[in-house]
Design goal:
This protein is an alpha+beta fold and 142 residues long. It has a single domain, classed as Nuclear Transport Factor 2, Chain: A. 25% of the residues lie in helices and 49% in strands. A 6-stranded mixed beta sheet has the order 2-1-6-5-4-3, covered by helices on one side. A hairpin with an 8-residue loop joins strand 4 and strand 5. The protein is elongated.
Length: 142
Amino acid sequence: MSDRDEIFDVAVRYATALDTRDWDLLRTCFLPDVVGRYGGDLGEVHGYEALEEICKRTLDPLDGSQHIVSNLAVQIRGDEAGFSCYLQSQHVLNDAEGGPLFTLAGRYTDLFRRTDEGWKIAERELETMWVDGNPAVLAHVL
């Protein structure tokens, strides 16, 4: 598999891990000292454990979610790569007052590093582009 394909595979694996709540699979996407920048109330996190905790706190209370990545682009520079993709994430909480669905669309901008286990995300930044639906669905994290 080419470097480009391996990096694209990480992006898809990440989305799948979130929606299946497979935290072991999610761990395979990141370096242990990853830095995540999520803006808003979530802010910046340092280290995989902190990143996983945000994901769990956000997703575990939900009845479902679907993360879709598209418009994948990569620029490989030796053992590092710049990567970006669009994201649309739908979050479902059936009993939420005001409606069960909240959608967020944005862009991930990442720095990947090559490791002995393959490409991993070293830095991730989420830029929110728009939201729709009931923000109360995610009130437990915002």
